Amino acid sequence: MHVMVVNTKAYKEGMGSEAIKIAKIMEKVGEETGVRMIIAVQHADLYRVASAVNIDVFAQHIDAIEYGSHTGWILPEAIKEAGAKGSILNHSEHVITANEIKKGIEALRKNGMESIVCAADNEIAKALAVLEPDYIAVEPPELIGGDISVTKAKPSVVRDAVEGVKQVSKAKVLCGAGIKNGEDVRKAIELGSSGILVASGVVKAKDKEKIIREMAEAMVE
Fold first, then answer.
1. Into how many domains does the chain fold?
2. Catalytic residue among 91, 132, 190, 217, which?
3. Phi and psi for 34 in degrees, rounded to 5?
């Protein structure tokens, strides 16, 4: 099954009631196309979004801590209690160490949740694959939020990541950075990825349903 992950980041267009609107569109399109939909929202929005839809809701980050004196840190058990099914780790806007990634994956797995670990290139993707995350999202930082997708600018990065990860892990590779339309998604699937991780391409779109549908349909053609 192909996967579409929408990261709302801290965009105004993806917070609170707006996050719910996006999630409901994703739920509708997911039911119609058979694409697995995941929305990664602000921690403050986890409970309200998870309570409003049946698609999987993820956090954008967790800290591998346990119950106790950890003011301001994100407890894995807390996001699970709020309805989250997993979390993104090591996004280029929130980079953590390899050891923190390892502990984060383990903490999520211990709590029955999934991990999406971000990697800047194919070499890092292969190195992180040995930690056995559920998904590895390949996102060259210089292309994130831009108008040129990784599938156009650096297709070999995606292809090599898919092949490299396959050699050492069962983790599925997602394609991210600059994904803006169905053509970008189609190319990502052709390069061997299992889906996409997208943010501004959806969250800042004027017609969110149109672009979500276009991207989802491109995965199942």
1. 1
2. 91
3. 85, 5
DSSP state letters, 79-138: HHHTT--EEEE--TTS---HHHHHHHHHHHHHTT-EEEEEESSHHHHHHHHTT--SEEEE
Q: Which of 13, 81, 139, 190 is catalytic?
A: 139
DSSP lists the bridge partners of residue 198 as 6
Alpha carbon of residue 105 to chain centroid? 14
Mean pLDDT estimate for the chain:
93
CATH code at 64? 3.20.20.70
Active-site residue, 91 included: yes
According to DSSP, the residues that pair with 219 across neighbouring strands are none
Residue 98 domain boundaries: 3-218
139 is catalytic: yes
Q: How confident is the model at residue 165 (pLDDT cuts 50, 70, 90)?
A: confident
Whole-prediction pTM value? Answer: 0.94
Token duo for residue 18 = 């707006």
Shortest CA distance to 78 belongs to which of 95, 65, 97, 92?
Answer: 65
